[in-house]
Q: What sequence folds into this?
């Protein structure tokens, strides 16, 4: 019996958008998935060692996860995601990550392109991956269909949980940040754990219907073309009358955030706090800022 092909998936960047599609897809194709662990000091140190100063903190973490997986899998999964159509661009890091990783490390990779302006959609990308793994078209399409069903089922549940918090009597804080910031063990989770101590309900901007929030983003700016930024700020317009405050979390030096968050903060009337993380030490003074922010929200009730 042949050993299963091992697919290495770094727990950073794309992971927090697509793991609920990737995992069932590869499982259906009888592949073994090797996910890197939660970000730890060793992974962070590797990321800093192999990255340059211009890369954002989240990207450095991604590189650390790649290094961790090098000797633990047959292939690294590294997509190249450019855009989801006109005015639905992604960060330049999402476009260049495949080339950067291939220049730093010598490891076989699986990749696919998302570039709707060139008619390269998700299905075509997954067909490419399956073909590289010598799977039949029928099995690839079946695996993709099952993966998408499971993905949407979980997302629907998460959206319902998010909405349910709006009826809470607690102070409600909207967390506006990319998933790879919020849910990373070193980057965003220390902030989330800090907020939990103050008995507030956290609502996540990334856990709403993206097709709805992208449209609502136009009420704050009609000229934005970053897909994920639009989805986050659209969530502000969706529920701004039902929350007490907003916390923005950014990874320095994120280009889209430096422009979008500044624009939004000038236009919204809800109390807000802007947290920019450039290294682990930056988290040290954040708890005091959060405490002061929560005190302000309590006074405004």
A:
């Amino acid at each position: 019996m042949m050993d299963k092909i091992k697919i290495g998936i770094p727990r950073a960047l794309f992971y927090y958008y697509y793991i609920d599609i990737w995992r069932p897809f590869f499982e259906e194709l009888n592949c073994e998935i090797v996910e890197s662990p939660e970000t730890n000091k060793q992974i962070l140190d590797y990321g800093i060692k192999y990255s340059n100063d211009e890369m954002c903190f989240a990207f450095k973490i991604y590189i650390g996860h790649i290094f961790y997986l090098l000797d633990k899998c047959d292939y690294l999964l590294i997509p190249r995601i450019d855009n989801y159509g006109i005015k639905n661009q992604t960060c330049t890091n999402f476009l260049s990550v495949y080339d950067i990783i291939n220049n730093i490390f010598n490891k076989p990779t699986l990749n696919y392109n998302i570039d709707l302006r060139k008619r390269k959609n998700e299905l075509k990308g997954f067909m490419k991956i399956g073909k590289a793994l010598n799977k039949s078209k029928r099995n690839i399409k079946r695996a993709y269909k099952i993966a998408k069903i499971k993905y949407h089922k979980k997302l629907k549940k998460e959206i319902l949980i998010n909405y349910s918090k709006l009826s809470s009597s607690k102070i409600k804080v909207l967390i506006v940040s990319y998933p790879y910031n919020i849910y990373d063990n070193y980057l965003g989770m220390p902030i989330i754990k800090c907020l939990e101590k103050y008995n507030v309900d956290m609502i996540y901007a990334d856990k709403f219907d993206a097709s709805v929030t992208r449209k609502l983003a136009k009420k704050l700016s009609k000229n934005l073309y970053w897909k994920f930024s639009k989805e986050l700020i659209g969530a502000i317009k969706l529920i701004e009358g039902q929350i007490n405050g907003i916390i923005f979390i950014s990874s320095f030096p994120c280009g889209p955030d430096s422009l979008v968050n500044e624009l939004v903060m000038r236009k919204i009337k809800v109390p807000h706090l802007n947290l920019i993380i450039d290294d682990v030490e930056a988290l040290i003074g954040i708890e005091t800022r959060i405490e002061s922010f929560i005190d302000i929200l309590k006074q405004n009730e």
